Amino acid sequence: MRASVIVVAIGVVALAGCSSSAPSAPSYSPQNPTAAATPSSQPTGAVQPSGDPAELATGLAAPWSVLPLEGGSVLVSERDSARVLELAPSGEVREAGTVSGVDPGGEGGLLGLEVFTEGDAEWIYAYFTATDDNRIVRMPLTGEPGSLVLGESEVVLDGIAKAGNHNGGRLAFGPDGMLYATTGDASQPDASQDPMSLNGKILRMTPTGEIPSDNPFEGSLTWSLGHRNPQGLAWTESGAMFAAEFGQNTWDEVNRIEPGANYGWPIVEGTGGAPEFVDPVAQWPTDEASPSGLAAVGSTLFLAGLGGEQVWILQDAESGDPDLTAFADGYGRIRDAVAAPDGSLWLLTNNTDGRGSPREGDDRLLSVPLAPL
After folding, report:
1. CB within 8 A of 195, min separation 6: which ones?
2. 227 classed as catalytic
3. Which of 199, 296, 316, 352 is the most exposed place for a label (fewest CB within 10 A)?
4. Global pTM value
5. pLDDT tens track of the chain, all 373 residues?
6. Residues 74 and 63: beta-carbon distance below 8 Å
7. Which is catalytic among the residues 79, 83, 135, 166?
8. All structural domains of the chain with their residue ranges
9. 36 vs 260: CA distance, rounded Å
10. How far apart are CA 339 and CA 295, in angstroms?
11. 59-322, which class in CATH?
């Protein structure tokens, strides 16, 4: 595996004291308030950062997921407050709703967000930790940009075991229109090897939670198994699916996901070379990554690192031997990486959740311009 590190300093930020300090009020500065996603705005092929990041939002409290909407608004989940914030095209930051039933603790709380349009109805999906389990719900979204409102939730899937850590939590609709969810092993490693367990998996379901007829295991939502704590999902422009996964003590991973494939946990961590398991396309020592979000722009993958406090770039990941570089040094823990509607890359910091060292203005949403490689 070829690896080099390019560190791009993206600002000198003063420490803002201990994590118990009261966070500042959120603010949002949209780069282009009226921009919507268009095919021409999405880069193709290999891309790279091409300038200094701009701050879009500051003062966020333990944010976890960023969800751009077609109308120009952006939704952000806050893990501990269970709030979903709307960053409106006008620059206003307001609460679109609070997800009922969230029971935050440890690494659990309100986690991933996703959107699905069904006729004239628009649904916001949320993955969260409840009192007894992790679950996925969906809520109708009403109103216009700047006044969006989340309605009452309905359960899509429940019964995913919870723990103080290893809760997974990412949601994404794939190119096939199915809903994918990453689940952790909830500190029960053997569950990862059981195709009928919901834990330690990437799950695939219909928008209302049913088992698709073409899933690889009959009667199971399991799409792939043998995962420890995956929290990133992305598809490159060719349709190839990738996931980012926290390792235990040795290796964090990015895997190319195939239906029915077994990625080895808890028998193998990182590359094992065993024919019954799929080896990762890239791996890092755990203090260099701790991957949470994963974005695909064109053919390039961007991996958000919490422990590594940087973003890894994977070029040519489909070859199984990608070129690796790193950037985004200076903003602390990076929770999410998102392919933005305007063709840039958005990064979400995560220094206010009790594990980081908050800087002035944390947590923040950043926009990184991209250009062809």
Report:
1. 217, 220, 222, 225
2. no
3. 316
4. 0.93
5. 334 433 443 333 333 333 344 557 999 999 764 444 444 568 999 999 999 899 999 999 999 999 999 999 999 999 999 999 999 999 999 999 999 999 999 999 999 999 999 999 999 999 999 999 999 999 999 999 999 999 999 999 999 999 999 999 999 999 999 999 999 999 999 999 999 999 999 999 999 999 999 999 999 999 999 999 999 999 999 999 999 999 999 999 999 999 999 999 999 999 999 999 999 999 999 999 999 999 999 999 999 999 999 999 999 999 999 999 999 989 999 999 999 999 999 999 999 999 999 999 999 999 999 999 9
6. no
7. 166
8. 59-322
9. 36
10. 6
11. mainly beta
Tokens of 220: 């199971």
Residue with tokens 């969260």: 128
- In this structure, the chain runs to a length of 373
